Structure formats: structure tokens, C-alpha cells
Amino acid sequence: MKKLLYTIILGWLLNTPALANASLIEEKKCSVCHRLSQEEIEKKGPDLFYAGNKFQSLWLEQYLQNPKTIRNAGTSHNTDFLKYEKDKSQKHPILSKKEARQMTEELMKITLPAVPEKMDSLKPLTKGKKAKTKYEFERTFSCISCHQSLNLAGKVRGGISGPSLVNAGNRLQANWVASWLKNPKSFSEKSRMPIYKMDDETRWRFTQFIMTLKNKNSQ
Amino acid sequence: MTKSSLTSFFLPGILILAIYMTGCGEKPAEKSSAPLPPLIEESQLVQPKEIAPPQPVVVSEKTRETYQWYCAQCHGTKGKGDGVNSKFLTVPPRNHTKADYMETRTDEQFFEAIKFGGLSVGRAPCMPAWGNTLEDSTIHELVRYIRELCQCEAL
What we know:
The complex is a heterodimer.
Chain A: H1 2-15, H2 17-20, H3 24-27, H4 51-54, H5 57-65, H6 97-108, H7 127-140, E1 149-150, E2 156-157, H8 168-171, H9 174-182, H10 200-211
Antiparallel strand pairs in A: 1-2
Chain B: H1 3-22, H2 28-33, H3 61-75, H4 99-102, H5 107-116, H6 136-150
Helix pairs in contact in B: 3-6, 5-6
């Protein structure tokens, strides 16, 4: 009887998160700043309840070890967002290589049921289509007013209230970009981005264009 | 004059009269019932954009928050054109408190600029179209709010 009791207690101990190494997300208290489910109220950090749909794992692993600012005006739910007074004490924690790998694995498992887009079957943008999309990115849809991207000279250009798209091609998944463009409000009721009713061809072309924006192309 | 010669004398005249009266087999009244096919199909015509006439509107608290949520990103929290994006735009955002300029624009122009974007009123493309994000009634209230900011009306 005693043996059985010891076995039960030992089994319970080994299964506690601290010993079983169950969740780094809980251990690092990510949920203090990030929403891990859509039901939660908006928090100051970017939402993570669709992290597995949104991020590229390689980028995520690198970011967690060396967090670089993506939202230059802070995140839009911060109370000081519009005052352009970033709270500098609120830097993202830095994780070790091992932790970053585990955290990435955990985050990539957090997904929403994704609507598959036809991104994989599309031909790469021709030079002309890329130029056309860049024109529309800046003039027709005014994306440049809130998002930084790269101009023709490879220089960073654009507003800062939205996340920078300078390295979007390494950071984001194409399928997610296309879904976001369809309706940002389906991810966040409180997005500050306008809704664009793009036809599918335009939306996919925009997604392809955004995926060409990579740090290595900047000068 | 024989009967046949009489007929041959009057027949051309009768025929001409008949053609004239019937208009090549169509009475004028019948013309309207069977019109010629239009040169341009109705579906091809560009329909003028529908803009609701300006009506006295009251700016709700929700609309003031809408301005802070969306517009203030570029136009600033007090509408002075100094939002967080303002320094990075090719054309500086409009200062909504400057009556000198604001009074030279009509409410309809403001409505159209918000709904269809800056380019639609010949202004900067930096201003996106908000027509899919905001209801027309909210846009009308935003126009009123902008008038509050400049403390001016259209000349």
C-alpha cells in the first residue's frame, strides 16, 4: 500500500511543469504581455494565439535570442502608443539558444484553423508585376504610410505605427499574410489597419510582394 | 384616260404618300417601343459615386475614439498633423486645426477623402481609403469632428 502511494506521489511530481519541463511559455510568463487565446482581452504585446500560422520558425528562434524592434512606435495597445514615447524598460526578454529552440517549438504549435491559400502554386512575380505592386503598395493602398518597407534603392522607408515589413519575407508565412490582408479584424478586433476588399489576384500579388521584402535586400 | 393609265399616273404618288405616312413601316409612336440597341450597355456605364447629402450630425464619443484609434496615427491625437507616422511620410498629414486651409474645402470633399482615400480628391496618396472599415454615418461624424478641430466651416 505504501509503495503504491509513493508511486502516485512520484508520478505526480514528475508531471508538474517545473520538473517535466512542460511549458516554457508558462515559465517565462509570456501571457503577461501576449494573448495566447482570442478570448482574452487585448494585451500590449503582439498576439501569439496564431503564432504557428504567422511566424517562420527560423526567424522566431533567432528573434528570441536577439529581439530587434519591429514596431518602432511600440505596439498599438500600449497607452503611450500615440505619444511616440516608447517604454524603454519594456524590452523583450532574451532567451538562450536552447530556450529559444524550445520556445519556438511550443509557439509553432499554437495555431488557428488556417484557410489554405493558393500561394504555393503561384508563379514568382515578374519584374513588371513587382513594380506594379510596389506602386499600389505605396499609392493605391497607402501601406507605406504605416509600414516601413524597402524603396527601389534598397533604403528603409515608411511610417512606424504598423509593424515594419522590411524583413517580412523572413519573418512571416505567406499563407498568413494573405489571410491577414483578407480581413485583419478576423485576427484582432482592435487592429488599426484599414480593411481592403482586394480581389484574390491582387491579394496574392501583394502577399508575394511582401514576401520579397528581406533584410538582405536592404542597403 | 384609261383606267390603267390612271393607275400608272397616281400609283407612284400613292406609294410615296404611303411610305411617308408609315415611316418605312413604323409609326412614330412605335419607335419608342422598339428602340435601337444602346451603343453602351448600361452595365458598362460608370455610375457616379453615391454620396449622401450632408445632414446635421452630432459627433458621438465613439467617433472621437475612432479618430484617436485610426486617424491619430498620422494626424496626431489633437489633429495637428503630428502623429507618429507624420515624420516619415512624403507629404505631411493635414493639420486639422488650421482653419485657413480647412475652410477652403467642402464637407463632401472631406467625406470623399476619408471614404475613398487622398487620391480620390486629388490629394496625397498617403491617406488610405477607409470606406471598407468605417460606416458612412461614422465618416459623416468624423467630418463634423474635423470641423470642430478647425473651428471652421466651408466658405
